[in-house]
Amino acid sequence: MTKTTHQTSAASAPTGSPSAPIPAVVSGGRVLAESGSSLPSPQHDPAVGPARTAAQPPPRSAYLHIPFCHRRCFYCDFPVVPLGDRADGAVGPGAASIAAYLELLHHEIARSPCGPPLSTVYLGGGTPSMLTPAQVGGLLEALGRRFGLAPAAEISLEMDPASFDRPRLAGYLAAGVNRVSLGGQSFDDAVLASLGRRHRRRDLLEASGWLERAHRAGELRSWSLDLIQGVPLAGVAGSDRTLPPSGSSPPRDAVLRHWQRDLEQAIALAPPHLSLYDLIVEPGTVFDRLQQRGTLPLPDEDSAADLMELSQRRLAAAGYGHYEVSNYALPGHASRHNRVYWSGAGWWGFGLGATAAPWGERQARPRTREAYADWLAASEAGEGRPDSSARPLREAETSRPSNCGMPFDERLLVGLRRREGVNLEALATAHRIGREALADLRGRLQSYEQQGLLRIEGPRWRLSDPEGLALSNGVLRELLEWWERAGC
Fold this sequence. Notes:
Elements: E1 23-27, E2 30-34, E3 61-66, E4 68-69, E5 81-82, H1 95-111, E6 118-125, H2 133-146, E7 149-159, H3 166-175, E8 179-185, H4 189-195, H5 201-216, E9 222-229, H6 252-269, E10 273-278, H7 286-293, H8 303-317, E11 321-324, E12 327-329, H9 336-343, E13 348-350, E14 355-356, E15 363-364, H10 369-380, H11 395-398, H12 408-415, E16 422-423, H13 424-430, H14 435-444, H15 446-450, E17 454-457, E18 460-463, H16 467-470, H17 472-485
Helix pairs in contact: 1-2, 1-10, 2-3, 6-8
């Protein structure tokens, strides 16, 4: 599991994985606000009447959360269920737990309202590659029965090195998977150990080789490699002899040299897609405890922009397009599923901790197996659960489009994550945001526009690449403050 951004950010959400509220405001992976946060609505122009958005079409994407993993990484605050290093979906330790959960997941899919054929499916976690190919195929068949799968659907599976071999990979491809997201995180064994990862450099190189050979043979449509930047460096072999003691920030030049080595190794493996995330220390994690003790040697926050600029410059030279704050792709290999989240379109979500947004309205499932099972039982009985934000899905609630799309602030903030930015005039018109409010916003952002960090090109607003995307926190803070101040 890589935390990003399902769906984005090394400690907030894995790419493609909405098992928590999607981070809407991120600079190099650093979250400023969660989507779904309770922000006041701005004043609307009385001349145009009350706020209203256009109806959204039914979802054509689905996310399935597989919570099981071998061990919890030190930065992870996701709803996961560690089962031990020997666990597997086939036989042995953890197999019964996995089978019991999959029965619940199949039940939820079967009771979901019907919709059009799915164009994208994403199995995230956790470590979905702990499931057998037959189990993955069974979930895809269940989705096919309920919704149908479009002929050219993108079917993504998160996989961890050392959790699969070549025969298992072949089994996943035969089951219908055509895109893989590989959670590499680092090529440095000492860093991997410091992150609490199970695999090592050798495992990552081997797994990457299998994926690239399958891709070149036409058996795998695409694959992505996830890496984390801004990792702990004290004691890392070969990083720099002048590194400070544990808990102090390493020198900027050591941080950049270490990251450049990871980038060069990644480019040499030729993944069609790369997701690069900043490490974020989340409350309650092992890293949080280490940081409170002063024993976590992380680079300072000012290094984040330098790392992103280095990444953009080197990857652009290698032919990768920087199409979103944390994501790079060769032509034709951008993640279609992630673009669903960033565009404000709706999606189905299944499994414990998963967030669904059939027509823009967030519906979060409980984060534990027991609570998830209770929620499904209550849903079966047609009852809501007053102690949970997750409400049962009823046909009457979700079988037709509504006027409740993603809120204006989320659409704006998520839109600015993308290279193309957002058509602010069209967005404001759809949400009935008055011209005076937009003029006030542009005034607040004038200094960023003058510095070249924000580009306003007719109706479209976007952050410049790499400077604006790398230094986006300032712009996005201003947006949040403007939204709060304009509220009624």
